[in-house]
Automatic annotation (TrEMBL):
The gene is Adamts13_1. Gene3D superfamilies: Thrombospondin type-1 (TSP1) repeat (2.20.100.10). It is found in: Secreted. This is ATS13 metalloproteinase. InterPro entries: ADAMTS_ADAMTS-like, Sperma_CUB_dom_sf, TSP1_rpt, TSP1_rpt_sf. Transmembrane segments: none annotated. Pfam families: TSP1_ADAMTS.
Length: 403
């Protein structure tokens, strides 16, 4: 071909259409659990090759049905201990909505036998209480199921949740005297059974007796919280009979109420704490098993009035709230409040079944309902004809009816 002129070399584009967008997956990150089943997060993005370069695109341009998982299971090693659970109990009600519960216990993967729960405290635990429905209840006019109505607590309606035994000296307490509402000794049961149930159930309880002793030593929980409640017009005094808290290890005792906040560890025995109001929460944090405090509490008429005559105090467990009626003798505007306190292991839900607070015109002077979460002190305002569902993060709530 030498005598013939050679044509120039050239490259022609064979397809002008770019490749469609596709999913790109980066390598998975670290496993979320150091042992047992965990999750590793991987970054999934939609990309497209344009002019030889990878360009990030919006996710809806890639096929949604083919999108890879953003979290994938992973196991580094088998855990030596893990949480295990019993079967769910039957629904607590024969009709309507109720709850189911199950027991949790720490299990050794080597022996497959329960061990001290302290070995599992670093592992997340699944829920032990869930809702259930046993079908609709037959309608019965003029009747209500037990506990279906919230009533202001008076001395005649208080539950025997703490043993009132001021005649016992604390050094003679071989058995914890504080027990929950269900802590009744069964026929034939001995002191050992009562002690075991008391140890297991003291944390998370609400105590409503006028006096009592609460033994928080030897509890299995790292954080143990109890609440004391009395009717309005009373205040609570707590004396610390004994304390084995290790302050160096970070163990501490915390008291909180609507008008007070106090923490301490050193020099606790025989110290006195006054709630200033009718409710008091005691939280104990321990690190070493067996440590804790023994408290003795009593109530008396409050030295100063911290409430208004139209205020109400409710201790649950469920019922109906109605906007309180203003007292006729009150000349000035009075903000009526409703205080709700439940056991520390429980939470509060408030659903507005019907609201009619007038037109939503002047945002300053119209009627409204104010709900406050006491644990976080966050406040939400509802107005007009706005239905709502409010849920607490703690066990105490306050409602103010502004009108």
């Amino acid at each position: 071909c030498q005598p013939v002129p050679k044509p120039e070399s050239r490259v022609e584009v064979c397809d002008l259409n770019p490749c469609p967008p596709r999913w790109k997956v980066t390598p998975a990150g670290p496993c979320s659990s150091s042992c047992g089943l965990g999750l590793a997060v991987q970054l999934v993005t939609c990309v497209q090759i344009l002019h030889g370069q990878e360009v990030l695109q919006e996710e809806h341009l890639c096929p949604v049905a083919e999108k890879p998982l953003t979290s994938v299971p992973c196991v580094i090693r088998t855990c030596s201990y893990e949480w295990s659970f019993s079967e769910w109990s039957e629904c607590s009600t024969s009709c309507g909505n109720g709850i189911q519960t199950r027991q949790d216990f720490c299990l050794s993967s080597l022996t497959h036998k329960p061990v001290n729960p302290l070995f599992c405290r670093r592992f997340p635990k699944a829920v032990v209480v869930r809702g259930c429905s046993a079908g609709p209840c037959p309608e019965q006019e003029g009747t209500q199921s037990p506990g279906a109505e919230l009533q202001p607590v008076t001395a005649a309606t208080l539950l025997p949740t703490a043993a009132a035994a001021p005649q016992h000296r604390h050094k003679e307490l071989d058995v914890p005297l504080a027990a929950g509402p269900s802590e009744h000794t069964k026929p034939g049961g001995g002191e050992e059974d009562m002690a075991k149930r008391s140890f297991l159930c003291v944390c998370g309880n609400l105590f409503l007796n006028a006096t009592g002793i609460i033994n928080m030593t030897g509890v299995e929980s790292r954080d143990c919280m109890v609440a004391i409640g009395r009717p309005l017009r009373e205040e609570i005094s707590v004396t610390i009979l004994e304390s084995s808290l290790n302050c160096t290890a970070g163990e501490v005792l915390l008291f909180s109420g609507r008008m007070m906040w106090r923490t301490g560890c050193r020099k606790l025995p025989l110290s006195l704490i006054n709630s200033r109001t009718n409710t008091l929460i005691v939280k104990q944090r321990v690190v070493l098993p067996g440590n804790g405090v023994i408290l003795q509490y009593s109530s008396r008429t409050a030295a100063k009035k911290y409430y208004q005559d139209c205020d109400q105090q409710l201790f649950g467990p469920q019922g109906e709230l109605v906007n309180p009626v203003q007292l006729p003798e009150e000349r000035e505007q009075v903000v009526c409040r409703t205080f709700i306190t439940v056991a520390p292991r429980q939470r509060i839900s408030i659903r507005a079944l019907n609201t009619d607070l007038g037109p939503e015109g002047n945002q300053t002077h119209f009627n409204y309902i104010l709900v406050r979460d006491v644990s976080t002190m966050k406040t939400v305002v509802f107005h007009g004809k706005q239905p709502f569902l409010w849920q607490s993060t703690g066990s105490q709530a306050e409602i103010e009816f502004h009108e």
